[in-house]
Structures are given as C-alpha cells and as structure tokens.
Amino acid sequence: MGAMASFDVLPDSIACLILSKLENAQMVAQCAIVCHRWKMLARLVDTLTFESFKLLEKKLDKTRNATCLEKIVTQMLLMTHGIRVLKISYHPVVWPWIPNDYFSEDKVCQWLQHVNTSLERLTLVDPNRVKPQPMKLLHLTECKKLQWLNLCYGFIPEMPILPGRFEQLVTLHLDLIFICDSALQKLVELAPMLEDLKLNSCKGLRTPHLTAFKLKCLEFANDMDVATTPITVVAVNAPNLVTVSLCHVEELVIDGFTLQNLDLIWHVRPTIRELPVLENLHISGEAWALDSVTHLIRLGTNLRSLHIDAYFERKYPIQLQSLLRHLQELVSIHIGADFFECLQTAGGAGAAFMRMHAMTLPRLENIVVVIGCGNNDCISVIATLLKCAPALQTLRIDAGQLRKSMDNVMFFTNLLGLQRNYPQVKVSLVCPQTLV
Predict the structure, then answer these.
(1) Close Cβ partners of 326 (under 8 Å, ≥ 6 residues apart)
(2) Are 7 and 37 in contact (CB under 8 A)?
(3) What pTM does this model have?
(4) Using one digit for the tens of pLDDT, what is the confidence trace for 383-434?
(5) Arithmetic mean of pLDDT over the chain
(6) Span 102-111, pLDDT tens digits
(7) Would residue 90 be called left, alpha or beta, if left means φ above 0 and alpha means ψ between -120 and 50 degrees?
(8) Domain assignment present for 376
(9) Which whole-number Å values give the CA distances from 328 to 39, 108, 397, in the listed order?
(10) Residue 338 belongs to some domain of the structure
(11) Would strands 318-319 and 280-288 be described as parallel, antiparallel, or unpaired?
(12) What is the reported pLDDT for 4?
C-alpha cells in the first residue's frame, strides 16, 4: 500500500469527514494532539458528541458533576468552527439526581452562541427539572439553521417572550421535560416547518391543543412510572398529519382526514370524524371501552393492517361479519384474547342475512389470533375467517393461555378438521404441552 495507505495523503475534506464519524469528542481531542495538521483538522470537524459516561472516567466518583463536563465541552467546542451536529449528554451517577447538578444556563448559552450560525442538529441531555432556563430557549431561536432538536430533562412551565422563531425546525423531541400546555402550544407555534413532534414521559400536560400545519408525525409516549397522571385531552389541528401514536391519553380530538397510521396504547376515547385513508390501526393496553375500538374499525374503510391487543372493562358479543365486512383492503389482522372472546359469528336471523350478503376479505393474507377459551364459538370464528379469505397464506394461533378441559381438547380436534379443509393455508399453533 505504501504512502497511499497513510492518513496524511487524504485531502482535508475526507480527513474531516472521518474525524466527524468518531464515537465521541474525546477521540477527536486525542487526534488533535498527534501533530499540527491534525490539530487544524480537529477545528474543522462538524460533528461532536459529549457523553458523560465516556468522558468522565471515574463513573462512581461523586465529584464528577455537571461542572466537569461543562469545562470539557467549553474547551473543546470553542476550538472548533462550524459545528453542524452537536450532542451533549450529562447523566449523573447518583440516583436520584444530585440537587442543582445540571448545566449552568450561562454555559449552555455560550455554547449555543458559538454554534448559532452552523448548528443543524442538537441533542441536549441536561438533568434540570426544577429551574426554568429561558435564556437557553432564546439562544436556540438564534440558531437559524436548526432542523432537529432533542431536549431531555428540561423545565418549561411557560415560554418566555422570544424575538425569533424556529424557522427551519422540522423535528422536535422532548424527553422527560416538565412543560405546561400553554408552553407546548407556543413552542409548536414558533416552529412553522415542524413535521415530527415526539413527547416522551413529559409531565405537566393536561389538555394540550396543538396547531401545526406542516405536522406529519405526532407521538405521546408516556412511561407510567414517570407520568403518573394521564393527559386528559389531546386536540390536534394538523391538516397534513399522517401518523399518530398515543400512550396514556384519555381523549383524542382530530379530524383524521389524512391519517394513515394510528397507534393507541391505553384507553383513548376517539373524537374523530373520518379516517378515509387509514392503513394501519394498532390498539393495545388496558381500560378500553369496546365501543371505542369498534368505532375506529368502522371508520377505517381502507385498513390494510389491524392489530387489536386490548383489554376491555366490559365485554359483550360483536358480530364478526358486520364488523369486518367493509375492510376490503385488509392484508393482516391480529386479534388479541379479549377481543377474540367478544367476536361471534352470525346466528339465527342474522345468519340468513349474512348468507345473502356474504363477507369476503379478498386481500387478507395473514391472521394471528390469541385464544383464551377453546369453545365452539371460537372454532366458528376461525372457520368464518378461513372461508372469507381466498388469498390467506398463514394462520397463527396462540393458544398458550388454554388450560386442560374437555372444551379445549375438542378445540384442537376441530382445528385439525379445519386444517384439512384448507391445505393451502400454513397453520402454526402455540399451546401448552399438556394439551397436545
């Protein structure tokens, strides 16, 4: 290879790109002391990551606090020019966190002021949940190229009066932030280009009403160990919204005209007018009202994937054919044990009506059902699904919850009969060893 293998023969642009790919800023600093050229190259690096677990060697030394990381960041950051991607993460070694052990606002503002003409992506993990830092937000609006922002452990009870806006901000992720409804609403209003908004276990929210005309993806991911009080209502005015994912939100108010993906965990009372283009509906968690789930299914006329793994407060029979017969685009369906228990095939006068209006799911290819009780109704539902799905390829039955009883033993006998009648379908079965 000779001289061609030497790092020194690389042009500055390629060498800087390689240094920008290093795992953390400490490696860049180590490279900078190799020689004069490498020191100059380190100044041109446009991506830096400061991670306390990697930069503070004695992880269990309580004297290694936020101030230690501040000095490292300041020393390294002020040596560079034109940082585009910056990640600064401080994770205190004591749990719960040491009081007042977080970055000083002056230092954070100094960092932002140094990079405000070039910064495009910022991740700031700062364990401050007790004291507002309005000047930090002010300096963030001065980063005119900022497109991606992730803040963790902040405290934003209200938004300060800001002279500027987040003109280029497309993605905003807030993790473990204390933020009130009005502050979140104002923050979203200040980002006219916002497309992706994610809030993970943020306290302080009760009834946020969001207006974001460019927004495409909205997620409220609440860890109940952190966010003990559910959000009462999330109301969204976003005419381009494509994906919504909500966890532990009591009510969703949205028009739904552009929604393609809807993922709901824990009971959400939907106030939605229409879901004409919805393709994927995923419902799981506890405390659901059965009529909320059936309402969403009936709205989703173009569903391709339906996943219901919810637990219901009160169960009652639902006629399978009347619930699913409009889903002509359905390709995949997952039916959890509670929901499967509610499904019934048409009987009596209903059976005569269904013979005249037979259900067909022409695109259905994959079915997963979770069985809690192996009675005759269970077999009837599976048989109906097999009969109405001419394109069906796989049927997976999870019967791991079944216990030894005569009904459950007969279930497997009847299932073998169905399998013989539909040899083109690959049937897989999970069940207790004692029932095989």
Answers:
(1) 298, 301
(2) no
(3) 0.87
(4) 999 999 999 999 999 988 776 666 677 788 888 888 899 999 999 988 876 5
(5) 85
(6) 999 999 999 9
(7) beta
(8) yes
(9) 64, 55, 23
(10) yes
(11) unpaired
(12) 43
- Name the residue range of residue 405's domain: 315-436
**Residue indicated by tokens 């908004």:** 197
Q: For residue 374, what is the domain's CATH number? A: 3.30.870
Check whether 68 has a pLDDT greater than 70: yes
Q: Distance between CA 357 and CA 351 in Å, rounded?
A: 10
What is d(CA 412, CA 385) in angstroms, rounded to the nearest whole number?
A: 17
Single-letter residue type at 413: T
Candidates 333, 347, 346; CA nearest to 397 is 333
**Residue listed under structure tokens 């009652």:** 316
**pLDDT for res 81:** 81
pLDDT exceeds cutoff 70 at 95 = no
What is the pLDDT averaged over residues 241-259? 94
Q: State how far the Cα of 236 lies from the Cα of 318, in Å rounded to an integer.
A: 31
> Which range (41-55, 70-84, 154-168, 308-322) has the least confidence?
41-55
Token pair for residue 291? 């009529």
Closest by Cα among 215, 181, 183, 180 to 198: 215
**CA 146 – CA 151 distance, rounded (Å):** 13
Q: Cα 431 vs. chain centroid, distance in angstroms?
A: 32
- What is the residue whose two structure tokens read 């207006």? 211
Taking the CB of residue 258, how many other CB atoms lie within 10 A of it?
Answer: 16
Cα 264 to Cα 275: distance, rounded to the nearest angstrom = 15
If you count them, how many residues does the chain have? 436
- The secondary element (H helix, E strand) that includes residue 253 is strand 249-254
d(CA 330, CA 60): 54
Q: Residues of 262-271 as b/e, b for ≥16 C-beta within 10 angstroms?
A: bbbbbbbebe
Query: Structure tokens of 348?
Result: 């009596």
Instruction: Extract the tokens encoding 308.
Output: 């219901």
Q: Is 32 helix (H, G, I), strand (E, B) or coil?
A: helix
CA atoms within 13 A on the CB side of 166: 26
| Assigned domain for 241 exists | no
> Does 417 map to a domain?
yes
Question: Is residue 96 reached through a cis peptide bond, with omega within 30 degrees of 0 on the bond before it?
Answer: yes
Phi/psi-derived region of residue 357, left when phi > 0, alpha when psi is between -120 and 50, beta in every other case = beta
Q: How many domains are contained in the chain?
A: 1
Give residue 353's pLDDT band: very low, low, confident or very high (50, 70, 90): very low
Q: Give the SS3 label for residue 404.
A: coil
Residue 345: predicted pLDDT: 83
